[in-house]
Amino acid sequence: MKQNIFSREERIILSAVEIIDELGIDGLSIRELAKKEKVTEGALYRHFKSKSDIITEVIKYYSRYDLNIMNTINKNKTDAKTSILFFINSFAEYYENYPEITAVFCSFESLIYEPGIESQVIELLDRRRAFLISIIEHGKKSGEFKGNLNSEDFADIILGSFRQLIFRWRIKQHEFSIKEKSTDMISLILESAEITKSTEMQ
């Protein structure tokens, strides 16, 4: 429920997220947005010049916690496994508390074909991937993870698995806790990379 504490621009962005959740990215239009906001299309154009401008702001809104999550991990300086679990679970908690926002995440594949928007999507995803890779590299150097572990491939496995979990969560109408499932799933993945006594003896 959008409240008066939000500015007009923020309310428009929130409505755009709801439309994407209900109708998909192709269903988002100035006309549909104006109808949802109960204003004229001209009133929307006073705040945003185009649909692309609105999508740009939606992506920024979607990723608004990214830097906070990364800064918290850097500040806490925990071990790699704990950092990765915190990284994934922070997003899981965000999505669980705001299910509609996952529609934006699930629309990224379509958005890479939108001129002027694809670079924003790629930059966002690359930034998350690079940060995760840096944690994995730290885990290798500290002796938590196997030294021959391919950090880039391992990051893709973690992110890909989490993405699949989000899709399934949406399809299943949020019938399970994404945070609990992601914790179990990522913990299982991390176990495959951890150094064990048998590994050390090899």
Describe this structure in words.
The protein has 202 residues and is an all-alpha fold. It is 70% helix and 0% strand. The chain has helices at residues 8-23, 30-37, 41-45, 51-62, 66-76, 80-97, 102-105, 108-111, 118-141, 151-171, 178-191, 197-201. Helix 1 packs across helix 2 (30-37), helix 6 (80-97) packs antiparallel against helix 9 (118-141) and helix 9 (118-141) packs across helix 10. The longest helix is centred in the middle third of the chain and has 24 residues, at 118-141. The termini are far apart. The relative contact order is 0.11. The model is unreliable at 197-202 (pLDDT under 50).
In short:
This protein has 202 residues and is mostly helical. The protein has helices spanning 8-23, 30-37, 41-45, 51-62, 66-76, 80-97, 102-105, 108-111, 118-141, 151-171, 178-191, 197-201.
Entry keywords:
70% helix; 202 residues; 0% strand; disordered C terminus; mainly alpha
- Element-level helix/strand string: HHHHHHHHHHHH
Number of helices: 12
Structural class: mainly alpha
Task: Provide the low-confidence segments as ranges.
Answer: 197-202
Mean pLDDT: 91
Major β-sheet profile: none
Strand content: under 5%
**What's the gyration radius in Å?**
19 Å
Report the strand count: 0
What's the overall geometry? elongated
Alpha-carbon distance between the termini?
57 Å
Helix coverage percent of residues?
over 70%
